[in-house]
Amino acid sequence: MRVTKMFFVLMLTSVIPLIAAELVWVGTPGYEDDGVEPEISFGGGRFTFKIAYVDENGILPQEIWVVVDTNRDNFLADNEKFFMDVVQKSGKYYVYEKTIELSYKPGSRNDLTYFFGARFPSRIITTSLRNGPIIKPRVSFTLSSTYWDVGRNLAPGTVVTMSPNDRILITNSGDAVETFALEIEKEDMWPDGWKHSPNANGAGENVYVLSALFTNEYEKYIWDKDFNSNGNDDVVTIKPKRAMGKYFGIGSSNPAEYLKPNDKVGLWFQLKLPTMSFGKYALEAHNIVVKLTCLPVE
């Protein structure tokens, strides 16, 4: 009888269920449904991008990155790719983070776009394209002076116009074209003191009229007649009034309506004193506080 040897080879392989790796929003405050904070900035600054990576198999990607349209050309290029670092780990959940410095660019689209990506040996996964962050122009200005001393021992009803030495020079120190508005923030430092009139000819008992004009930076002198030549257009009241055309302008011209970055404009005031000052504080100095606001021109 012939005996044949038989061999059995048993091959065992381990099969790991394939569960897709995911890039998901971190879910913490500010990152519930997007991947950047702050979402809006004035003038730019530091923006922190975050994304979470989840894989039940615990397989980490080779790298994770964020691509941001930093040059605002609507094209996401390789040189706009920023590799991210792990900042948090919890089981098979990883948080990646990258902080990028971005600034406002005049004349450019400042509503950026971005997306996240992860690389594996045999594939790449990405998120959808997202809008943000939005970088708005920084609005700011500087003043050559914040105080005007009208004088003392003035007769009732006196009209005082700023001298060239008192003129206030405003410089647009922001990123955008700006316009300005004026209002009286505090009519008088004393309770039951002086009040303002919205009428150019409204000065009366304990009632004054404050007017203002904006001129170009080279204007060295203005006349009393330049104020309110169109009626009450240059009178400053407790309601904000924007410098626009005839309002706070000589004739229909107003250089403060569209002031470009780094440009300057002159601000002049005129005060018509009350025709009579009475009451407990009649002989005291009276302070009027004026608020100047700048607004970006869209």
Structure characterization notes:
There is one protein chain. Helices cover 0% and strands 39% of the residues. It has 298 residues and is mainly β. Strands 3, 5, 6, 9, 10 and 11 form a 6-stranded mixed sheet that branches. Strands 12, 13, 14, 16, 17 and 19 form a 6-stranded mixed sheet that branches. It is built from no helices and 20 strands.
Secondary-structure topology with pairs:
Layout: E1 22-24, E2 36-37, E3 40-42, E4 44-54, E5 63-68, E6 81-83, E7 85-90, E8 93-103, E9 111-119, E10 124-126, E11 130-136, E12 141-143, E13 159-161, E14 168-172, E15 178-186, E16 195-196, E17 207-216, E18 241-242, E19 264-272, E20 289-296
Parallel strand pairs: 3-11, 16-17
Antiparallel strand pairs: 1-4, 2-4, 4-8, 5-6, 5-9, 7-8, 9-10, 9-11, 12-14, 13-19, 14-19, 15-18, 15-20, 17-19
| Count of DSSP-assigned helices | 0
Q: Runs with pLDDT <50, length 5+?
A: 1-19
Based on CA atoms alone, the radius of gyration comes out at 33 Å
Count of strand segments:
20
Structural class: mainly beta
Question: What is the overall shape?
Answer: elongated
Question: What key attributes describe this structure?
Answer:
single chain, 298 residues, mainly beta, 6-stranded mixed β-sheet, 20 strands, 39% strand, disordered N terminus
Give the structure's gist in a few sentences.
The chain has 298 residues and is mainly β. 0% of the residues lie in helices and 39% in strands. Strands 3, 5, 6, 9, 10 and 11 form a six-stranded mixed β-sheet that branches.
